[in-house]
Amino acid sequence: MKKVINWQRIWDDDGNSFFYGPVSIIASVLSYVYLFIVSVRNWLYDHKVLEEVKLSSPVISVGNITVGGTGKTPCVIMLAQLLQRNGYKPAVISRGYGSRSDQPVNIVADGHKILLDSETAGDEPFLIARVLQNVPVITGAERRMTGKAAIDQFGADVLICDDAMQHRQIFRDINLVLFDSRDLKSRKNVLPRGKLREPMSQLKRADAILLTRVDEVEPAEQAIAELVQDKHIPVFRSIHQPKDMIRGDFNEKIPMSSLAEKKICAFCGIAKPDSFQRILVAAGATILAFNVFPDHHRFSAKELEQIKDEFIRKGADYLVTTEKDAMRLHHPSEFLKELFILRVEMKIQPSVNALENFILERLKHYTK
To answer: 107 and 207 share a domain?
Structure first.
């Protein structure tokens, strides 16, 4: 059987086995190549050899410097709702990871209705479009083009640029960098030897840092101080709070308390499935089966049939998946009627007021 590389073991320096030792050495060599390419590119932008295009509306970048889910999608949703509450007309622009479209500009949602499916739009943009009301969502590889389309076609007066820390084509007025609190110890190596997309020194480009999942791991003050590097960058904290569960056909909504002392089967294909599992356990559920698939996995009819058979065979009370996974399910309604979707939202701790004031103050001083 073909040996599958567990990259988490490589990143955690668990390279003592016969197999992982050589893989770690090769990954280390490739990391130096990757680091050289990233450093040259950033140097070109920092020294204005490559220009960042300034758009006619302010841009808020939501990104990270590590691989894996840090919570960018719920953060984008939270920011859009924050801006709407304060009278702004935001639009979301995204690269559209996993999108099957090769068009330069894809209107996922025009603010009134969703125009593309998840395969064309990509998982995260489709989810963002489904949750937000009156917010255009646009995808495409060239942020300059998608940003201009959001402004010219929909009158957006603030752009939220999803997953944009490494995409420096356009100037960002607020560079918000997310960092999973559980990854504060994994800050040594860049890809593929480590989890970093860029070296930690590039956090100098951040205007603010948002630590996520602080309810799972309380970050040490020393680790936070090392993040900000004496740059006086504000650091905010957030949690991923379960909101409710909705039936797969969207015809019924139930509170999280419904899981207490219930037997469930669950499945997901997300970057950090352990967070999903923790939420279920915290709700008081007994997990009979927890099936994990690769991130962004598109489930086949056969896989879903196997999941459903296991759910019935084990006599579970609920079959549960994540909201992001649900965006990739396009199968018979019989399956969706059996399924419940866990919905999660980002909450700033202890209050959203500090982040809100920071965002609004920066936007107040925006000049074209």
So the answer is: yes
Residue 345 dihedral angles phi and psi, to the nearest 5°:
-130, 155
Establish if 79 belongs to a structural domain. yes
Cα 55 to Cα 63, 110, 159, 173, distances in angstroms: 19, 20, 9, 10
Percent of the chain with pLDDT over 70: 91
Residues in the chain: 368
State whether 219 and 322 are in the same domain.
no
pLDDT confidence tier of residue 2, bands split at 50, 70 and 90:
very low
Q: What is the mean pLDDT of residues 62-82?
A: 93
Least Cα distance to 176 among 108, 309, 100, 83 occurs for: 83
- Alpha-carbon distance of 232 to 237, in angstroms, equals 16
Coil/strand/helix, residue 71: coil
Give φ, ψ of 21 to 5 degrees. -60, -55
**Exposed (0-12), middle (13-18) or buried (19+): which is 145, by Cβ within 10 Å?**
middle
Residue 193 near residue 30 (C-beta atoms within 8 A): yes
With 50 as the cut, is the pLDDT of residue 19 above it?
Answer: no
What are the C-alpha distances in Å from 201 to residues 133, 196, 227, 229?
37, 11, 9, 8
Q: In terms of domains, do 42 and 172 share one?
A: no
Q: Report CA-CA distances (Å) from 165 to 80, 187, 203, 224.
A: 18, 17, 10, 19
- Within 8 A by CB and 6+ apart from 297, the residues are 269, 325, 328
Nearest Cα to Cα of residue 80 among 196, 192, 162: 162
Bridge partners, 343 (sequence order):
244
* Identity of the amino acid at 322: T
Q: What integer pLDDT is reported at residue 152 of this predicted model? A: 98
Q: Count other C-beta atoms under 10 Å from residue 160's C-beta.
A: 28
Instruction: Tell me which residue range forms the domain holding 23.
Output: 7-46
Predicted confidence (pLDDT) at residue 51 exceeds the cutoff of 80 = yes
What distance in Å separates the CA atoms of residue 358 and residue 355, rounded to the nearest whole number? 5
Q: What's the domain count of the chain?
A: 3
φ, ψ at 128 (rounded to 5°): -60, -45
Structure letter (DSSP) for residue 66? B
